[in-house]
Specification:
By secondary structure, the protein is an alpha/beta fold. The protein contains nine helices and ten strands. Helices cover 35% and strands 20% of the residues. It is globular, with a radius of gyration of 20 Å.
């Protein structure tokens, strides 16, 4: 009996350091999140990081409706700032990365034309993330308006619900798409070549995409959530994000 009690006590103590944390992550980070989790687990091997991916707007709506996320990595600062103002986030939003836009097509394109390329009659469908819920979609629309092509091409839009879905549409359901540059650093995207299938969108055409991180009320007293939050602002996390095409503060 004593032996069983001792074993039970040891299992209980061990479980205190083997928790699960739930984080909501903007879809554009889906390509880097596995590497980030692996690096974090080198430091905290017993912590399971459960990730829910989606557009920042939809994730914010879920959080407001009581979804049990403990930390939120958004695609811009607007949504975490709103959650902080409402008292749902317990830490002031900080920038963990700065994202940028790129064009992507399964076909060879003449990117020397810049954003005027989308006016080409051979481009009949343009994949864009929903600008109402996806910050990268909003940035794409802003770039087209500032580039003087929006009114001419708005009828070509094929809307996606997230930036990861936009990547899929760009190479299947559309002729070209406005995507998060970070997605191009996934091994699955190696077939698409810079200058042939993809290029940077002129950053002067859209507002820099500052991506914000906050701890939510559900994670306020959780030391493992605090550890992941601290990790995401560390040099190790910043190196991984940089390797995936982000600028880091």
């Amino acid at each position: 009996m004593l032996k069983k009690l001792l074993i039970g006590s040891l299992l209980f103590v061990g479980s205190l350091y083997a928790g699960t944390i739930n984080i909501a992550v903007a879809a554009n980070v889906s390509y880097a999140i596995d590497d980030l989790k692996k690096e974090f687990n080198k430091l905290y091997p017993n912590t399971e990081v459960k990730v829910t991916l989606g557009s920042s707007g939809k994730l914010t709506a879920q959080i407001k409706n009581g979804a049990p996320y403990q930390l939120f990595m958004a695609a811009n600062m607007k949504y975490p700032q709103a959650l902080y103002a409402d008292g749902i986030a317990t830490t002031r939003p900080l920038v963990y990365a700065q994202g940028s836009l790129a064009y992507l097509s399964s076909k060879k394109q003449n990117f020397s034309k810049g954003i005027k390329l989308v006016e080409n009659s051979k481009i009949s469908k343009i994949a864009v993330a929903n600008p109402k819920t996806a910050p990268y979609g909003k940035a794409a629309v802003e770039a087209m308006k500032n580039g003087g092509v929006y009114d001419k091409v708005v009828g070509k839009y094929v809307y996606a619900e997230s930036i990861s879905q936009t990547v899929s549409y760009a190479v299947t359901a559309a002729d070209i798409g406005f995507i998060a540059k970070s997605s191009l650093y996934s091994p699955k995207m190696s077939a698409y070549k810079k200058g042939i299938n993809w290029a940077d969108v002129d950053p002067k055409l859209y507002t820099p995409i500052n991506q914000g991180i906050v701890v939510l009320k559900n994670g306020e007293a959780n030391s493992e959530v605090a550890a992941f939050y601290t990790f995401m602002l560390s040099a190790k996390a910043k190196k991984i994000l940089n390797d995936f095409g982000y600028l880091v503060p």
